[in-house]
């Protein structure tokens, strides 16, 4: 159960402490129970909500009938009573719409995250809601876009997604493709969606159909939620896109009607909370989908075309014995000294064109002599590595640090994990890292006004 | 000498190997020597240039009279002769312009980097060129902007700038302010300029005058160089700005005439090579300077006003026993297990609203129990930490990880180093980290279309 993963055990009074905790304990209340609070002649009725850790110990928070949360400050005159135990959440499950012959078949594979959930108004906890019936009940418009088949693969917040989940996703996609489909949508938490998009880009060679990853920045109980529009966009794109690539489809900047489609190896989450959080870096978006007029405009003219006869080549092996290190002023060499004893490869997120402080060079040299594979990316994010301009870059090149052109640090990390899943030989790993496998390196960097 | 720091020892044939190395060795050539190459009846004359490490062993590169570099492919018919030894570089030093009573006094303190250098056409190496006379000879327009006093403090590529340099810069600034000046320009390499800007923002409390940091992305021998315009802009801003804040002044996006002035704690290098590399994050630029009409437009209405009677409070102590760790899928807890034995504090660069994978929680818990100070920032860069939304965030809060609102990870690292320079007590450190000292946290995050 999601709510257990979530740590929202209703037998606890999560987040309450001090006098409010004592008061709730006295009436044997649990999160989710129906509570009545009487204060200054006013009655407040609602489900008991968990508190955040940073909250005070003065307020009790309940979700009232309208769906809003209110906090009632407790003082010596306040009375509180438990009216009823929390009810189990129920979902209305209408029958799935009939199969429509004129629509494509789209499979939705859920891995968790905000997009794949509905908020339980009882506790505020998120619940996975991705049977086809749940989807049609939440977003009836989906039945006009495609015949949908839904799969719940994981129910993970994406910060907990790890390389073994990438393997599971790739294998599930392979299985669904074998069973026949026109496009696949992967619902995923936004935190690490770009890492997973890169992983699938490397793992799914020779794709026949589009794989559209989608998330939402704001859950469906919020007025500004992007969950429904992003998912509708993703399904439409999966059903009709001419490309067979791993992409991320998320809310665009210019208009609420635009969903941008980003190349899986060139995309990054660049805002913690904004709906326009996902951006193509050192590349333009692959395509733009307009929700209002259901049109898909391609921005790229070179891409792998959709071809249902193409046979997928599944290369879903990852070796996580790889470290990502961001360098900074004052960084000590002891960290690299430690890392070279443990890891097969290190992605450096250097400064500027691909530099680290000179005090780290000896440790890097020692690591390379031991056979540790060092690659260079930039913490600038935008732009391209060039280690020929300054002495530090040339020194690093001479030691054997491999510059990764305009590859994102996050993509470079995933690619090195994938590379060491293909080979244990350093020379072969170097060749793979510097070969453009899934569009992770651009032939040239875009003009700065476009690329930023 | 810069050329020695640079590793460009003219007695070596840096970058040459194989047959070209042998050929140059035979004629006893060194980098910088005047070389004549004869091939297919053509003569090529120029100074011998060092090669980059990624270069082949087939070409000899010389800088010809026009200033351009050419590479000549060596084959069995090629002849090569040494015409003369490399001359020491000479700089023309015109007398400084007369003191102009109607102009402000601006002090330029150079720490190194591309902006503070001129390229030695003999070797391609950069040389510090920041006596006032050198400056006036390079950029005569400066004498119309201010009476300039120039200081060479360091000649460091900024990837080598470390906390002890921050202390040196702050002390030098204090000394110059005491001697009387209207504004200070700090020339700095761009790689770590934003880290240094944050460091000076914390170290220089109660500033009386503006401190304008400036760099250049392209050296002055390149046609698209931003060195002169950035420096002229910085001097003009230092002389006339109404604010007394540490800022970074760099080329703007919209026009070659605009120099953007960024708050020192809210600025980040976001492009490896573009001139518009520096951006205000989660804040608008403090001001915009238009070079063409010499106008400074303030974007902020709240700032510390220039006041020459205000007495600087120098708080230039930094403790570098602090680690910055970027989290990623597959990150192992062993890194945190190691770090908590070594470091007093760790800045986590988590995903999204401020998360790390659950598999790291035990190691973080262990660290916090040992008294290690953990703070959370986001690798999204834009936006604000909010650890109350999802379970992982609440779990981290409960363990005692401190969320740093919309502070940049780089600024957070510098602030923690500064904080542990002020106190060794964890409770005091927590209070300092969460107090807005130098505008490092915004009261609210800007709308996403503005902040990105």
Mean residue pLDDT of chain A = 87
Number of domains of chain A: 3
Oligomer: homodimer
Silhouette of chain A? globular
**Quantity of strands of chain A, as a count:** 23
Structural class of chain A: alpha/beta
- Fourth-tier CATH superfamily name of the largest domain in chain A: L-asparaginase, N-terminal domain
Largest beta sheet of chain A: what is the strand line-up?
A: 9-6-10-12-13-14-17-18
Determine the fraction of residues in helical runs of chain A and give it as a percent range.
25-40%
Low-confidence stretches of chain A: 1-11, 88-93, 448-452
Beta content of chain A: 15-25%
Largest interface (C-beta under 8 Å): A-B, 89 and 89 residues
Largest sheet features of chain A? 8 strands, mixed
What's the helix count of chain A? Answer: 13
CATH class group of the largest domain in chain A: Alpha Beta
Task: Please report the distance between the alpha carbons of the first and last residues of chain A.
Answer: 42 Å
CATH architecture of the largest domain in chain A: 3-Layer(aba) Sandwich
CATH fold annotation of the largest domain in chain A: Rossmann fold
C-alpha-based Rg of chain A, rounded: 25 Å
Task: Provide a concise account of the structure shown.
With 452 residues, chain A is an alpha/beta fold.
Walk me through this protein's architecture.
By secondary structure, chain A is of the alpha/beta class. Chain A has three domains: 2-84, SH3 type barrels; 105-314, 3-Layer(aba) Sandwich (Rossmann fold), CATH 3.40.50.1170; 322-434, 3-Layer(aba) Sandwich (Rossmann fold). Chain A is 26% helix and 23% strand. Chain A is built from 13 helices and 23 strands. In chain A, strands 9-6-10-12-13-14-17-18 form an eight-stranded mixed beta sheet, sandwiched between helices. In chain A, strand 7 and strand 8 (126-128) form a beta hairpin. The radius of gyration of chain A is 25 Å and the shape is globular. The two termini of chain A are 42 Å apart. Residues 1-11, 88-93 and 448-452 of chain A have low confidence and may be disordered.
């Amino acid at each position: 159960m999601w709510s257990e993963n979530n740590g929202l055990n209703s037998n606890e009074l999560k987040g309450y402490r001090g006098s409010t905790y004592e008061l709730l304990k006295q009436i044997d209340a649990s999160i989710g129970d129906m509570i009545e609070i009487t204060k200054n002649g006013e009655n407040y009725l609602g489900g008991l909500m968990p508190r955040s850790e940073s909250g005070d110990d003065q307020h009790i928070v309940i979700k009232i009938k309208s769906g809003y949360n209110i906090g009632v400050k407790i003082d010596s005159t306040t009375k509180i009573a438990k009216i009823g135990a929390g009810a189990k959440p129920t979902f209305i499950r209408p029958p799935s719409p009939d199969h429509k012959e004129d629509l494509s078949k789209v499979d939705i594979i859920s891995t968790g995250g905000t997009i794949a959930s509905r908020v339980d108004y009882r506790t505020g906890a998120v619940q996975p809601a991705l049977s086809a019936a749940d989807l049609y009940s939440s977003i009836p418009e989906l039945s006009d876009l495609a015949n949908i088949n839904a799969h719940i693969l994981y129910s993970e917040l994406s910060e907990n997604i790890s390389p073994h989940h990438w393997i599971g996703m790739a294998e599930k996609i392979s299985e669904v493709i074998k069973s026949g489909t026109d496009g696949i949508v992967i619902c995923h938490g936004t935190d690490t969606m770009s890492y997973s998009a890169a992983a699938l880009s490397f793992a799914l060679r020779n794709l026949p159909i589009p794989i559209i990853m989608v998330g939402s920045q704001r859950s469906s109980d919020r007025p500004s939620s992007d969950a429904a529009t992003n998912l509708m966009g993703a399904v439409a794109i999966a059903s009709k896109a001419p490309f067979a690539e791993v992409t991320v489809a998320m809310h665009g900047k210019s208009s609420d009607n635009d969903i941008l489609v980003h190349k899986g190896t060139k995309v990054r989450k660049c805002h913690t909370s904004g709906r326009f959080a996902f951006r193509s870096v050192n590349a333009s978006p692959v395509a733009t989908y307009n929700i209002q007029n259901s049109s898909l405009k391609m921005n790229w003219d070179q891409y792998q075309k959709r071809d249902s006869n193409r046979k997928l080549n599944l290369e879903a092996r990852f070796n996580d014995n790889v470290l990502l290190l961001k360098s900074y002023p004052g960084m000590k060499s002891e960290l690299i000294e430690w890392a070279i004893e443990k890891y097969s490869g290190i992605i450096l997120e250097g400064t500027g064109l691909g530099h680290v402080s000179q005090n780290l060079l000896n440790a890097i040299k020692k690591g390379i002599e031991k056979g540790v594979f060092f690659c260079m990316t930039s913490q600038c994010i935008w732009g391209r590595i060039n280690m020929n301009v300054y002495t530090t870059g040339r020194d690093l090149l001479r030691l054997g640090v491999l510059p990764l052109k305009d590859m994102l640090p996050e993509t470079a990390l995933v690619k090195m994990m994938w590379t060491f899943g293909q080979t244990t030989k350093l020379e072969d790993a170097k060749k793979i890292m510097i070969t453009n496998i899934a569009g992770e390196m651009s032939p040239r960097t875009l003009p700065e006004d476009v690329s930023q």
